Prior knowledge:
heterodimer; A: alpha/beta; Pyruvate-ferredoxin Oxidoreductase, domain 3; six-stranded mixed β-sheet; 7 helices; B: alpha/beta; Rossmann fold; seven-stranded mixed β-sheet; five-stranded mixed β-sheet; 14 strands; 22% strand; Pyrv/ketoisovalerate_OxRed_cat (chain A); 2-oxoglutarate_synth_KorC (chain A); oxidoreductase (chain A)
Amino acid sequence: MRTEIRIAGFGGQGVILSGVIIGKAASLFDRINAVQTQSYGPEARGGASRAEVVISDETINYPKVQNPDILVAMSHEALIKYLDGLKENGILIVDPDMIVIDEIKDFVIKNNIRVYYARATAIATEEVGLKIVANIVMIGAITKFTDIVSYDATKDAILVSVPPGTKSKNITAFEAGYALSDDLVNLN
Amino acid sequence: MSEEFFIQGNEACARGAIKAGCRFFAGYPITPSTEIAEDLSRLLPKNGGSFIQMEDEISAIGAIIGASWSGLKAMTSTSGPGFSLMQENLGYAQITETPLVIVNVQRGGPSTGQPTMAAQGDLMQVRWGSHGDYEPIALSPSSVQEFFDFTIEAFNLSEKYRVPVVLLADEVIGHMREKIVIDDNIETIKRTAPTEKGEDFLPYKALENGVSKMPAFGDGYKLSITGLTHDERGYPATSNPQDHQKLVKRLCNKILENRDEIARVKLEQWEDADVILISYGSSVRSVIEATFKAREEGIKVGYMKIDTPWPMPEKEVLEVSKIANDLIVVEMNLGQMVHEVERIAKNNANTHLIGKIGGELPNPDEILSKIKELV
């Protein structure tokens, strides 16, 4: 089965690294096929940034995401820009502090989207004391809310992907994301 | 022994270069190729090699030509704007028979165009970009594994035939991450060095396969290396038509006469196909997906994946043109390879183009609709 994941935000939030870690977890540690692609503007920070991962137990020919099964939005701009592509019955994971949920209520109800909240930026700041690990908190949330990558594989992928001195902070961030409640958000 | 990595195409290319024996890189950073230079700036010093960031792409190719004549396997990487600047020296590398590898990770053009978006608009520039007659070799990877493998192959071909080889990649393959397996056992080829005494040696006298032996500066041979038409000693011989014919025909023939050995192509599901899709580089991925989708719907479609756009695998293109009614060339430009396919297929089959520009991979569904229009 082919699963498509799109993670979007603004440049500097670590969106691309999140995609790389999910891809690595699937490919090298869960040992199924994965391709990670990305899209970014010429700016180094700010601007839209998007990482995409295709995970499949079959050979992945077309490497790009067309209609994601899972959309992770770390900014309101990204949410509005990419929401339309999300599949019916798809999963939407958002940082509620970064978006205005009312604006997408109609789409969510109409398309039976399953919405999860992950307060990644606040948790990174308050629980880890390091705002820049918000992306790793989000990876913990993705691991918890979806079954695309296993807990062990993702943890291993984080450990081989982050700089040596930052491993414990990143694992704390991952665990904090994984500890989030997986209750669906009811928008009715 | 082998090791697995989940890395970008550009990173795979840098690792492939090291495995192939590349020990010199000169370049100027440009999106979407920069990661190749970045990685080699770290890897080369650790492997006894040198990395130089040059002031521009003209000097970058100049530096690797010099490094190659110093006996090292040398490489540069760039994208369209830099590749344009390299054209003059690329011709110089052709006529001086200098082995080197140029990686062009294509982006949208003309000019600075779309730095972060993919394209395949430089195909004909590889063929005709420098002035005069020559036969280029170009390899186009369509996966991260192939970017690694083809980098090694590019070095091997350049050393074997004493020619510059272009690794014609694109942004999708350069930046995409996939799993690759790097094997410890990799076959590498090195240019043949002369064994005769200095005074007897003719640096441009060809062996049976059209390729001549290559000494390095400092090996004790008197070397004249010039962009002018030259004789077997390397001395300028610019006014005699025969001298020019002999040299330039040999340069072209050493590629053309070895075409079957150099050209690489993969054909799938073609024996019963009504429509055959032809592509190279990243757009092959869309073509394979479209083939599967068409077959699921019972439409007889096959595909041809061309790994060496230059030299074109003419024999295979001609063969499939006699089987299918329609050939569809899928490429990320407004029509370049399609002209080659038309020229080779003649009236055997109808040749069509799906030419996509803008930076995104052709969508498999677009290809499928075109197929349905035809069958």
